[in-house]
Amino acid sequence: MQDRWVEKNVDLKLLSGLVENFFKDKSFKITKDQSASECTISARSQQGVGILGRVIVKIRGDSNDFVIEFSTSGHSRSALKLGFMTTLFGGGSLVLRGLKSQETVENLEKDFWIFIEEALAHLTDPTH
User: I want to staple 49 with a disulfide (CB 3.0 to 4.6 A). Which of 14, 39, 45, 98 is the partner?
Assistant: First the structure.
């Protein structure tokens, strides 16, 4: 999913730092790639978080017109497909792992967008 904000005058470097902290607080290992117009934050879950693959957040644009995109590497769906295809041969555990991962990703994404709204409200508040 992605969303766009205009005329917010947000420091995108500060916002990307807050996004990094969001994932670190949830025990993810972070890698960051930054260019002049785009920041990509890749978050890989640690043991026990339950997400297969990576979560990728891209922040593109400038302080007054930017897009934030939340996506995953798709490993949850791959595990589900493979699990369903191999159910007769014991692939049920893959289905279960894929479903749990997908549910965890959906909950994480809900939390992420709530966090983004709160962070943007704070960053655009002239009294902060």
Answer: 45
